[in-house]
Specification:
Distance between the termini: 34 Å
CATH superfamily: NAD(P)-binding Rossmann-like Domain
Shape: globular
Number of domains: 1
Strand content: 5-15%
Largest sheet: 7 strands, parallel
CATH architecture: 3-Layer(aba) Sandwich
Amino acid sequence: MPILVTGSSGHLGEALMRVLRDDGVAAVGLDVLPGSSTDVVGSIVDRATVRGALEGVEAVVHCATLHKPHVGSHGRQDFVDVNVTGTLNLLEEAVRAGVSRFVFTSTTSAFGRALTPERDAPAAWIDEDVVPVPRNVYGVTKTSAEGLCELVHRDHGLPVIVLRTSRFFPEGDDRDEVRAAFEDDNLKVNELLYRRVDLEDAVTAHRLALERAPALGFGRYIVSATTPFTREDLAALRHDAPAVLARRVPEFTDIYARRGWRMLPTIERVYDNARARRDLGWAPRYDFAHALTLVADGRPPRSALATAVGAKGYHPVSTGPYTTR
């Protein structure tokens, strides 16, 4: 089944291309930037480029996007052009080409202000039933693109799966005070508890979405590492997250102490991936417990695929952790 992967020079796109090609799958990479995994250099905003890239393709994985770090460097119209018009071009041309399935990479950032509860409220439990309240143009355009995915599915019958992925980028946090307070691996392992997914697990979710799309028709799914927390923990997580973690994963205390690591004092939201695990048959490997095992053994707390793809950056000029390398 020939597959078009957009955004093939980015983190997820390159990872998908690597895995698909290693498995002997005929995959075509499309990106505005050249790269080792990109066959067609061009923009999804250009419909002719999209139409040409879709020739002979049976499935699409649409990862290309302007990301949250671009909010400070690109205008709102740029976001609309790439994230909305580009997605519409791909959807309509996929229908025209007779594509059998379409997977759209969205983001948990789409939930926006719904991720931040009131000051004294419990942490937010985030599943697919939570209504997004976009915080910026990135969130607005990603939710708009999701809407186009659903519309084209309903109007034309194209099977479409939307994956709202949590953090998988290797760059440091965009907040200076957070980068100063936590060793990078320490922070990323903490995030596996509630807001991060390893790149390998994200790739697996996309491949399963491709397999299940015809049977499911349409669906939105959160793609994040499986949390050890439950809804019963939400109030306590907001006030004393280390104590909650000590009850759920008691071995973390000694492992963190040996590394000189710290747990976040509070957690304000928890992503629930149960629907993706149920409907897609997804079984993410790199959860907090697995990362702890790797750390205890002196190994990096991430997959070999994430290490191989490495950091990409988002800007050719200095913007802290998001500068292109």
